[in-house]
């Protein structure tokens, strides 16, 4: 597989995963014998320096150490939510598209209902009941509202693929429904599943960031979103601490970029017609 | 007969990973005013590329490598189409030369009524809205469509009616030349006959020169005046329709005509092998691997184009000038 | 003697609000001995719908289709497998007939596997190569390639190789040469005719192209808006068509001969709208017919034996009434 997009995407993602996992350890190594994450460890709003590469935040915590410790939670939330959303979306979308008729109508209505569900008031309500969030709870909640997009995309693609002559041909060869679904239709859906995963993962991360921004997020979780949210509400840009916004946002963007590159690369590998350069045979 | 369009030495290539692949090579063509010129060839022979190149519509990865396309109006000086750009090109394209691409009857905008689409096309090419309205009504009459078609959406029309709308739009600016690429391919045989008869009538009554591109020899035999046969990016034979059919010179033309399942149901044989694509054009004459009369020279040299009979040109080593090379 | 295939009074209707009669009371038979039947009509005539019904891909609204005496919708696993093995198809579009994610030989391998044609992999490979050669393809040029890497002619011949592999009794070929190059058409048609002669395979050949129907011979059935208007031996019907629509169709074939140009200019008839919501108890061709009479608007013409003494030649037209 010599596809440039695929390889660069995988490399970038691997790098980010390693960074996420080793983040806390790196942070500890930068500040030996100190608890860089403790509230009031350092003076607040320190400007960037060699000791504090992007300064300290409102709580006197070293922002860089905070970033290093926030990558993993963000990724976990994003990935779990993305996988949940994609999984639910594929099941709903596929069933609606393949079976059609009444089942399709019911599922489509249901999908639309979830799509327009007011998520913010729900989170507001949840906020009064759940005082202690954990990664899992947050991911599930985000995932459960993220699947309609995938469902629609998958349904549309299934409807289209179902009518292709090659499906008729394998029916004439005696393939049963199970074989048709897994061996004929699924390969055509993989690019869309991949895309949904990328969108769902990053969507969840950004949604979480948005919730943090308006104070509805999980106060006890440290995520990249939380940093961006706090940074915005406390106006760190105004006091020249750009890094505290740019670095976490940048990492989110890199994550999205890597997932998208992998997705585009996979699509080119799987769908030979998309290859842009002329293959001389 | 006056020449209205002259294609000189046109060559088009495709940019590949590391090199350029030849698609069209040294195509020479002269189109006479008021005729119906057929360009026939199997899929992949480059006939659509030729049309796109002549209209200066090439897009990457296709690139123009060499050649000129001269438009010679009755009163005015010749212009090289390939040198026109921007606004001048746009004005030229619909007013002097109109183009009906392959499958265009399926490219009508499904959310616009026919009237709006036709008028939009005309106003985009410089007509005022009032002029456009008038021309559109006249054009519909020309193709025997009722005026109430204007208020319909494209999906409410049959395939034949859509194609007539496309033709009407194309002729409403009174072009000098109309290029139609496979205009009847998706239509059934009766509608095909109607459309072809319309095109022939448009040519006779409005004096519009028509270049008809198709893979169907039957269609050519019915309405073309002259026929150019293309194979693997080159024109291998060109002449009057009767001559090309009844006394074809090039082995490819002969074999092609012989392989058509005919009226009497006698057994025919298809051509051996398959036409090469641009990535594996053989050296010398591109037909040589399949040619029943192949000679050693065919494998090495491209045959020059020779006027074997008056106004009947062929590109084959079987026919050479007595003096030797370059015809 | 039993028939291989018997289609009896099938009707297919689409849509609920404005029902479209895609197929309207069509019946025909194909005998046990290998034969060719050409099903000819314009788009919208119902020919592809009939093909799908016969292949068991969709159920007719009414009517029956039997294969060797048993209904093709019989719910018996064993019989269905046998039916599938003996009744196969060749599709029009040589590209979309293949799943683009897999190599082209997969359709052959799946067929071998599902129909248990051979017992072991080496024999499977041998059979695949043999079938490819039988359609004039070189295995080394075909195996291992993806569909988009082959030409339309090669892909269509791999479809035929699949037929050669399975050896069905009946092929439903839906426009098998319409998307194939002119030079290759004769080759594909010759292969189909050879299959008939050598392996005793019958073909139901669906097309809008009368010249290919003529080339194949056999019997012809001409459809118009879901109804049969004329049927008989191809040579006879195409030389002297009786039904006005058949006459129009046959005279409109573009003969590849500049000396045989169309003599008359066709007039544009009032566009034949699908008169589905209107009266169907009439001849559907009445609005375009040059010989239309009063009765044509009132009664649907039944299929009757033609004035020629040939019992197999039938036409549904009031011009030839009186022969019950």
Describe the structure.
The complex is a heterotrimer of chains A (about 280), B (about 325) and C (about 325). Chain A starts with a helix and ends in an 11-residue tail after the last helix. Chain A has about 280 residues and is an all-alpha fold. Chain A is built from nine helices and no strands. With about 325 residues, chain B is α/β, with parallel strands linked by helices. Helix content of chain B is about 30%, strand content about 25%. Chain B contains ten helices and twelve strands. In chain B, the strands form two sheets. An eight-stranded mixed sheet of chain B has the order 6-7-8-3-9-10-12-11, sandwiched between helices. A four-stranded antiparallel sheet of chain B has the order 2-1-4-5, with helices on one face. Chain B is globular, with a radius of gyration of 21 Å. Chain C is about 30% helix and about 20% strand. Chain C has ten helices and twelve strands. In chain C, helix 6 packs parallel to helix 7. Chains in contact: A-B, A-C, B-C. Chains A and C meet through helix 6 and helix 7 of A and helix 2 and helix 3 of C.
Could you provide a short overview of the structure?
The complex is a heterotrimer of chains A (281), B (327) and C (324). Chain A has 281 residues and is an all-alpha fold.
Task: Spell out the blueprint of helices and strands.
The complex is a heterotrimer of chains A (281), B (327) and C (324).
Chain A: H1 4-30, H2 63-99, H3 101-115, H4 119-129, H5 135-162, H6 165-172, H7 177-213, H8 224-234, H9 243-270
Chain B: E1 3-15, E2 20-32, E3 36-40, H1 47-54, E4 62-71, E5 79-80, H2 86-95, E6 97-100, H3 114-124, H4 129-142, H5 159-171, E7 177-181, H6 189-206, E8 209-214, H7 217-223, E9 226-231, E10 234-240, H8 241-246, H9 251-258, H10 296-300, E11 305-309, E12 312-315
Parallel strand pairs in B: 3-8, 3-9, 6-7, 7-8
Antiparallel strand pairs in B: 1-2, 1-4, 4-5, 9-10, 10-12, 11-12
Helix pairs in contact in B: 3-4, 4-5, 5-6
Chain C: E1 3-14, E2 20-31, E3 36-40, H1 47-54, E4 62-67, E5 70-71, H2 77-86, E6 87-90, H3 106-115, H4 121-134, H5 139-142, H6 152-166, E7 170-174, H7 182-199, E8 202-207, H8 210-216, E9 219-224, E10 227-233, H9 234-239, H10 244-251, E11 304-305, E12 314-315
Parallel strand pairs in C: 3-8, 3-9, 6-7, 7-8
Antiparallel strand pairs in C: 1-2, 1-4, 4-5, 9-10, 10-12, 11-12
Helix pairs in contact in C: 3-6, 4-6, 6-7
């Amino acid at each position: 597989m010599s596809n440039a997009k695929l390889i660069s995407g995988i490399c970038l993602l691997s790098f980010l995963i390693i960074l996420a996992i080793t983040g806390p350890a790196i942070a500890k190594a930068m500040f030996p014998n100190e608890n860089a994450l403790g509230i009031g460890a350092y003076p607040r709003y320190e400007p960037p320096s060699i000791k504090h590469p992007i300064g300290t935040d409102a709580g006197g915590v070293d922002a860089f150490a905070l970033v290093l410790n926030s990558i993993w939670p963000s990724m976990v939330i994003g990935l779990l939510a993305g996988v949940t959303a994609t999984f639910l979306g594929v099941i709903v979308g596929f069933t609606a598209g393949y079976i059609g008729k009444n089942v399709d109508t019911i599922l489509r209505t249901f999908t639309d209902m979830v799509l327009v569900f007011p998520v913010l008031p729900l989170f507001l309500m949840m906020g009064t009941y759940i005082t202690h969030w954990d990664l899992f709870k947050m991911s599930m909640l985000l995932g459960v509202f993220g699947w309609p997009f995938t469902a629609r995309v998958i349904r549309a693609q299934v409807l289209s693929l179902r009518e292709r002559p090659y499906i008729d041909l394998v029916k004439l060869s005696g393939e049963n429904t199970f074989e048709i679904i897994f061996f004929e239709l699924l390969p055509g859906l993989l690019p869309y599943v991949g895309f949904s995963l990328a969108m769902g993962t990053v969507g969840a991360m950004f949604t979480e960031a948005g919730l943090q921004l308006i104070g509805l997020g999980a106060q006890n979780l440290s995520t990249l979103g939380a940093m961006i949210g706090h940074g915005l509400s406390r106006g760190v840009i105004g006091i020249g601490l750009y890094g505290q916004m740019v670095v976490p946002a940048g990492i989110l963007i890199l994550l999205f970029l890597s997932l998208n590159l992998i997705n585009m690369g996979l699509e080119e590998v799987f769908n030979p017609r998309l290859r842009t350069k002329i293959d001389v045979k | 007969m006056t020449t209205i369009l002259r294609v000189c030495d046109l060559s088009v290539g495709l940019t590949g990973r590391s090199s350029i692949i030849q698609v069209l090579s040294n195509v020479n063509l002269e189109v006479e005013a008021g005729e119906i010129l057929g360009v026939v060839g199997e899929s992949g022979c480059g006939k659509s590329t030729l049309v796109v190149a002549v209209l200066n519509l090439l897009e990457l990865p296709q690139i123009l490598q060499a050649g000129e396309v001269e438009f010679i109006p009755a009163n005015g000086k010749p212009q090289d189409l390939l040198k026109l750009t921007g606004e001048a090109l746009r004005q030229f394209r619909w007013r002097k030369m109109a183009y009906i691409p392959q499958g265009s009857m399926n490219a009508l905008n499904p959310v616009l009524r026919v009237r709006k689409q036709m008028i939009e096309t005309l106003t985009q090419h410089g007509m005022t809205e009032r002029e456009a309205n008038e021309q559109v009504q006249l054009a519909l009459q020309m193709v025997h469509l009722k005026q109430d078609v204007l208020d319909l959406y494209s999906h409410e029309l049959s395939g034949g009616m859509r194609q007539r709308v496309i033709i009407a739009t194309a002729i409403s600016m009174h072009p000098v030349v109309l290029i139609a690429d496979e205009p009847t391919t998706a239509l059934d045989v009766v509608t095909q006959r109607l459309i072809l008869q319309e095109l022939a009538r448009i040519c006779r009554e409005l004096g519009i020169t028509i270049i008809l591109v198709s893979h169907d020899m039957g269609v050519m035999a019915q309405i073309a005046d002259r026929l150019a046969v293309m194979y693997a990016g080159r024109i291998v034979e060109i002449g009057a329709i009767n001559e090309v059919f009844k006394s074809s010179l090039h082995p490819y033309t002969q074999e092609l005509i012989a392989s058509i399942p005919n009226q009497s149901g006698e057994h025919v044989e298809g051509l051996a092998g398959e036409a090469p694509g641009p990535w594996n054009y053989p050296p010398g004459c591109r037909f040589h691997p399949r040619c029943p009369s192949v000679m050693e020279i065919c494998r090495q040299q491209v045959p020059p184009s020779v006027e074997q009979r008056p106004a009947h040109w062929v590109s084959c080593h079987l026919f050479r000038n007595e003096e030797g090379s370059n015809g | 003697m039993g028939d291989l295939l018997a289609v009896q009074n099938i009707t297919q209707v689409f849509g609920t609000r404005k029902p479209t009669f895609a197929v309207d009371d069509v019946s025909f038979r194909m005998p046990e001995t290998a034969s060719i039947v050409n099903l000819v009509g314009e788009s919208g005539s119902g020919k592809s719908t009939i093909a799908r019904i016969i292949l068991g891909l969709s159920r007719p609204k009414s009517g029956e289709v039997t294969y060797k005496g048993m209904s093709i919708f019989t719910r018996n696993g064993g019989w269905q497998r046998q039916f599938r093995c003996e009744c196969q198809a060749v599709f029009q579009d040589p590209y979309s007939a293949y799943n683009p994610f897999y190599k082209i030989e997969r359709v052959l391998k799946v067929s071998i596997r599902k129909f248990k044609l051979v017992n072991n992999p080496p024999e499977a490979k041998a059979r695949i190569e043999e079938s490819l050669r039988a359609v004039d393809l070189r295995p080394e040029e075909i195996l291992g390639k993806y569909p988009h890497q082959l030409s339309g002619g090669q892909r269509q011949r791999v479809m035929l190789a699949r037929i050669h592999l399975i050896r069905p009794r009946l092929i439903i070929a839906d426009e098998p040469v319409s998307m194939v190059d002119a030079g290759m058409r004769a080759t594909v048609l010759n292969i189909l005719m050879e299959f008939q002669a050598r392996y005793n395979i019958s073909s139901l050949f669906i097309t809008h192209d009368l010249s290919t129907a003529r080339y194949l011979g056999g019997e012809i059935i001409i459809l118009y808006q879901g109804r049969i208007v004329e049927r008989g031996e191809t040579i006879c019907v195409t030389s002297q068509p009786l039904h006005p629509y058949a006459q129009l169709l046959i005279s409109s074939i573009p003969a590849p001969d500049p000396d045989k140009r169309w003599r008359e200019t066709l007039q544009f008839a009032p566009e034949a709208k699908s008169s589905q919501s209107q009266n169907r108890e009439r001849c559907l061709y009445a609005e375009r017919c040059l010989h239309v009479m009063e009765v044509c608007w009132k009664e649907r013409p039944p299929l009757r034996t033609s004035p020629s003494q040939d019992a197999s030649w039938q036409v549904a037209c009031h011009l030839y009434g009186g022969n019950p």
